[in-house]
Specification:
Elements (H helix, E strand, L loop, with lengths): L4 H13 L10 H13 L41 E6 L2 E2 L10 E4 L11 H9 L4 E5 L9 E23 L4 E24 L4 E8 L6 E10 L4 E9 L3 E10 L5 E10 L4 E10 L5 E10 L4 E10 L6 E11 L5 E10 L4 E11 L2 H9 L4 H18 L4 H15 L11
Parallel strand pairs: 1-5, 4-5, 5-6, 6-7, 6-8, 7-9, 8-10, 9-11, 10-12, 11-13, 12-14, 13-15, 14-16, 15-17
Antiparallel strand pairs: 1-2, 3-4
Helix pairs in contact: 2-3, 4-5, 5-6
Length: 416
């Protein structure tokens, strides 16, 4: 009997993890503990509920067997004077410039809360990592741009690891940015902790080329009375999986997550969100907007979990989606799991199509059909774009979104 894909992927993952250097004081503990957990983990298959709309078949090309070796272009996006660049999972020290009050170590240690097999593979096979710490009572005036670039002409992968600690009384704007091209799989893990009176504005920009792949895990843990504002913007590609886990562990913590995802052509994007209210009197608010065109496929599963004893919780989730033409697919599933009566929770999800009357109005004013659809698509998400607090990010987002919504369909398909 031939080996199934999940079994084959696990075999490849364990083989790859076995090639990591045996001794590295900064990473050896994480590698050892992650490998032990990976050996007991199962890779998802067709019957895995949380992977229902995402097939790992693209990885059958052998991405986990080879490390990405492609080169980054001479010019990379610059969204701040302060930046960190990783190319195929390795820090480029020549392009690193840190603001005062932020320290960098090439190590990683976070394992708690990271249980999916790809996050475990990331820890077990790491060759490099970034750990950032903002000193207590430090206000970092300028954003810090962390750019992760991946490239490969043949199926290959890289692991990126970013761990961030925002200490008591500190403020940071962090731009976590993924770029890449070719048949490269980026297996990314980001773990962020905020302590008392800390404030974090976080952007996660995922704009790799359509032929690349991305499996990402983002972990927020609010161990103090802190506030996190997170903005996640992503375009679909051959395989994109975006898993977000938020742990609210101190009464008074506030979390706001906004997101925009776009799947065009034959691309794919899957968002899996889980907000864990584990203590009383915390607030979370999630607003996501999705668009899909041609044969694009998008998914959002948003779960809010109110634990026993988490009284006084206020939690909301809104997911509105727009199909740009027949043939596109969007699956949305909001979930509430509540074990306390003294809470206020709400969720809502919609999937609709472009308004024919609005299209006719624009066409009657001489606007071509493709431009009319693009204008209506931008109007659908403009509220979230306008809410972006950093102007450099907003200036990057607007043309990027316009290009994504104006993407040319494949031959024989109707223009959007």
């Amino acid at each position: 009997m031939s080996e199934s894909l999940p079994e084959d992927l696990k075999r490849q993952a364990l083989a790859r993890a076995g090639q990591a250097p045996a001794e590295d004081g900064a990473l050896s503990t994480l590698r050892r503990d992650s490998l032990a957990a990976l050996q007991s983990a199962d890779f998802p298959g067709r019957k895995s509920e949380r992977w229902k709309y995402t097939s790992l078949h693209p990885l059958s090309d052998g991405h986990l067997q080879h490390a990405a070796q492609g080169a980054a272009p001479a010019r990379l996006p610059v969204l701040s004077d302060y930046r960190i660049v990783m190319v195929n999972g390795h820090l480029d020290e020549s392009q690193t410039r840190l603001p005062e009050g932020v320290s960098l170590r090439r190590e990683a240690e976070r394992l708690d809360g990271l249980s999916n097999p790809f996050a475990l593979l990331n820890g077990a096979a790491l060759n490099d990592a970034i750990s950032l710490e903002v000193a207590p009572n430090t206000e970092v005036a300028e954003p810090l741009h962390v750019l992760m670039f991946a490239a490969s002409d043949t199926p290959a992968h890289c692991h990126t690891r970013l761990e961030v600690l925002v200490n008591r009384g500190s403020r940071l704007t962090l731009i976590e940015h993924y770029e890449g091209h070719g048949a490269a799989l980026t297996n990314a893990v980001t773990a962020i902790e905020t302590r008392d009176n800390a404030q974090l504005t976080h952007y996660r920009l995922q704009s790799e080329a359509a032929d690349s792949l991305h499996i990402g895990t983002l972990l927020f843990q609010q161990t103090g009375v802190s506030r996190i504002d997170s903005y996640q913007l992503m375009a679909g590609n051959r395989l994109r999986r975006n898993e977000v886990i938020a742990l609210l562990d101190k009464s008074g913590a506030e979390l706001a997550m906004n997101g925009i995802f776009v799947a065009r052509g034959r691309t794919h994007v899957d968002n899996q969100l889980c907000v864990e209210h584990r203590v009383p009197d915390c607030t979370s608010n999630q607003i996501y907007r999705g668009l899909a065109g041609e044969k694009g496929k998008a998914t959002l599963n948003g779960r809010i979990h109110i634990h026993r004893g988490a009284s006084g919780t206020l939690a909301e989730l809104s997911n509105k989606n727009l199909l740009l033409n027949p043939g596109a697919e969007i699956n949305t599933k909001p979930e509430l799991e509540i074990y306390n009566d003294d809470v206020k929770c709400a969720h809502g999800a919609t999937v609709g199509q472009l308004d024919a009357a609005q299209q006719f109005y624009l066409r009657s004013r001489g606007i071509p059909a493709a431009d009319a659809k693009r204008m209506l698509g931008l109007g659908f998400i403009n509220e979230l774009v306008m809410a972006l607090p950093d102007e450099n990010v907003a200036e990057w987002v607007r043309p990027w979104l316009a290009a994504e919504l104006g993407q040319r369909p494949e031959a024989g398909e109707e223009a959007a």
